[in-house]
Amino acid sequence: MIQRTIPTWQSISWQEELSSLITDPAELLERLELPESLLESAQKANKLFPLRVTQSYASRIKPGDVDDPLLRQVLPLGAELTSPASYTADPLAEQSFNPAPGVIHKYHGRVLLISASQCAINCRYCFRRHFDYQTNTPSRAEWQEALRYIADNESIDEVILSGGDPLAVSDRQMQWLVNQIAVIPHVTRLRIHTRLPVVLPNRITSELVDTLVKTRLQCVIVVHINHAAEIDEHVHNRLKILKKANITLLNQSVLLKGVNDSASCLVSLSKRLFSCGILPYYLHLLDKVTGAAHFDVDEASAIALHNHLLATLPGYLVPKLVREVPNAASKTAVYGAEHNLGYTNN
Hints:
Elements: H1 14-18, H2 25-31, H3 39-48, H4 55-58, H5 69-74, E1 103-104, E2 110-114, H6 140-151, E3 158-162, H7 171-182, E4 189-194, H8 196-199, H9 206-214, E5 218-224, H10 233-244, E6 248-254, H11 263-275, E7 279-284, H12 299-312, E8 320-323, E9 332-333, H13 337-340
Parallel strand pairs: 2-3, 3-4, 4-5, 5-6, 6-7, 7-8
Antiparallel strand pairs: 1-2, 8-9
Helix pairs in contact: 7-9
């Protein structure tokens, strides 16, 4: 039996929790009272893409339930060991849009900075599970190169911090980076794509909020929540701190088989998000990354689910159904019959 004593996540700092992640499949299975028969395949898949789960996220997973929607997002499975030929290590061809270390520039007017190489949890469907973070984790000198790239391109008015997870960096590093971006006059918006407010809610510190509130940049945080059960009371309260600071909150989800591929799940998610001050933004079809084929939901089923949302929810609670297509000028909308029929929702 694994003997490991860790203070409860409620009583430690976010940095301490980040350093006490569950990384051993045997520990996760034991903690959640899951069958030992899952261990061998979990250990094999773990070698391809390491297990990382926070204590707070694990506390929301129902013990003994192999089909728990939160568990399915983090538990390595034998299904990851084989993939169809159409699944690749770089499904979005991001290597083609990597003009400087840490920079991905795919779309007009906005550029993405890889501001951290790690996440607090490793989502098993992550499209960057094979990304070369070693050459895209800039040193301070390389950060200056990335910032010069932005400063020299006046068409860029929005900088997106991504990763990894950008909130995995310290408050001090975040403040430095935000200040460096803010001195570039043609940049007006800062967008942060993050999962940490959900999987590591203690990361929402007063120092972080001060940095985002005091900058001249308009700040948008796009969280990544796939299921309403990911939002417990603590997550809800931390998200409300951001909302009260007048930071725009949006959510993007991935449609995942066995996680949220039902109308009731998606409706509940939209309503729960709005209760936290978050507007649903995107519902992504799965990016075809090697190791994630078992999460795929076919397009016809996705359209049917989206049509149900359109018929059930007010328009502001319906995320756009999209996919990412390499070399496209933007996210590509996925439409059903309602688009051609002039369907409207209010």
